[in-house]
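for the writeup, i need someone to sanity check this before i put it in the appendix. the sequnce is what the collaborator sent (i think, or maybe the updated version? ugh). structure was predicted straight from it, no edits. if anything looks off just tell me and ill rerun, i have time this weekend
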Amino acid sequence: MRSVEWLGTVGLGALTILVLAKPGIAAATGGELGAYSAPQARDGGAGQAEAAGTTQSEIQRATNKLPAELPFFIAVRDGEKLVQQVGEWLQGLDPNNPIAQAMDQHAGLNQARIGLLGIAAASGLSLEEALATLVGNELALTFEPETDAGAARFMLALAPSDSEALDRMLRQVYRSMGLLQRGQIAADHLRAIDEQQVVVLSEELLACRTGNALFLTNDESLLKKSLQIHADFSQSLESYACFSEIAAGDIVFGAKLGSYKSLLASGLPQALDNSLASILFGSELSALRGAEHISLRIDVKGDSLQASMDIAGKQGLPSELQALLPVEGRESAWQAEKLEGYLGTIAVRRNWADVFAEREAIMPLAQAGELVNFSGTMSALMGAVDFIEDFLARIDGPIRFLAARRLDVADPPSPLLPAMALIAPLGLDLPAGLEQRIRAGATSALSIIGLEDAQQGRDAILMDIDRYRGHRLVYGAYPRDVSGPKTGIRYNFSPAIALVEGELIVASTIDFLKQIIDQIEDAQSIAEDSFAADTLSLQLPRLAAVLEDNFESLRVSRMLDEDESRAQAGAWVNGLLGLLRLGGNLEFASRPTALGFEWKARLGLTTGE
């Protein structure tokens, strides 16, 4: 276990340096942090590999050098490109960003930087060249955690981009570990395995440098297999069932769960906390519990991170849970992104009538009871309307939840929450009387809210009806002539409801409802069929702006919840804001596949300026 812990420490340290290395330290240590220039590949094993019938591209890979018997693997491809892209982003990072400042002031990170800079300088390399050498053309790790059946095992392979640079760095590592005597590795630290010289780094850790690879392991049998499979890729990592879909990614992860499937299932809840969570994530939970393979691919672009994750089992989702799967429908013709202060959208696609009708089969009885109560209440509010058959069955397309930052608010309350809206597409051919019953239900709901306010001795919400661009609006608002500061979330709302071009809109403020109506009325595009997926889009810098609007409220809440000083709480909030400002637009989609689920995500990157 000591070797595994050592590998984890070294691996995390190298990754930390890769992500956090910044200019300024090299000047003090003799390093060079100028413009990045990739070292030329000078792999000493090329001739040997070509003689064995392999190609240059095969030489530059590590995943074809490791046995496939261990259940988990991680691979990093094209280290030179990755180091260059991350380095360029870090050099452009705003030095005033709290995250950048925390990185510069972290003692452990600075020690790791200086340590690597020392090895790099002694090897005649710049920091960027040393980092690129550590990752190489491809770096792959396969591992098996400790179980009752045996100790943890791992096997790491590196296909170097510059063999000479790697050898110089290894020599410096051996020297720092005290393995060299008169310039040579001491005999008691050498072992021959399959005619290859192996360096014994510790009781459990072995290193082997061949002509076109570096191996590091705590299991001699794994090393023997790796040395034997160079010409037999069918026994390598590339035989993983999930490998072909992610092989070209910059960073990839794969898992053959096998005996670990029950361990994964035991760590997951049998059911989610409430009916809404079950509707949103119940299918994904079921897919995770039945997963046989999991794969993850991450691609690092100049201005974004892109990721895709696949979960596959032996069979698809059970038939009784089919109602929880996203379905295709009609996409709205207008673009929410054009709303002033737009923050983001969550879109959920379901056959809602089936979800409510089959509730007992897809969630625990207590949660199914929540849906019964909700549908009963909605039917009563609208009067003589079956909420499931007459309303939910008409929804054709995604139900969307929108949010936007509130700008130029007169007499803003504290906290100042975003404006929000729930939008359900019902279609233009509504039955006679349904629109009137929906408005009547909205009026009844607002009346109940006002009555509850009055009974609790609070300022009661006032209900009214208005027209805007030909559409009738039902809304409520708290009186503006109330004396004293307007604190509490009630003053963030003037709930408003309208049916506009076949879409039911329930907004948190009447101003936001009117903005949405403007977008719908002015839309130039036409509605298109949507794909069967749940999606999320979020503007992280604008979310940071919303939090900054409520900086003092967040600081006070942090002080009370975590018993922190005013300065500590303020630093924590600033750190959160700094982290959000490093991101751009976050996009996420979840869709079913034949045997499970696919998740895709994209995160834009900024420098926090």
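The CA atoms of residues 359 and 365 lie 8 Å apart. The longest strand covers residues 291-300.
thx in advance!!
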